[in-house]
Every structure is written in structure tokens, then in C-alpha cells.
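We give the chain.
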Amino acid sequence: MHPKIVSSRLGHATVAFTLDTYSADIEDLDRDAVEAVIGLFLPSSARGLI
């Protein structure tokens, strides 16, 4: 879900506060970011080789 929506629903003053508070709790954040970057450079058929 978009961080702005989460921030608004939780009543936080800023999106930065929401991200600072909850982003450490997202275990797959780094893995998802790496996979997204790899997807920019490698075709999907080659991703399973990494």
C-alpha cells in the first residue's frame, strides 16, 4: 500500500514519520529492492540463475 495512504490512515503528521517507524519491520524490503533493480537489467529467464 502506498505510504501516504498508510500515514494518513494512522494519523501521522508526515509520511517520513510513518516510513521511519515501520520500514524496519518490513523484512523483505531489501530483497524486493534488489529484485526490482535486477529486473531492470536481466530478462526474467536469467533471474533464477542469481
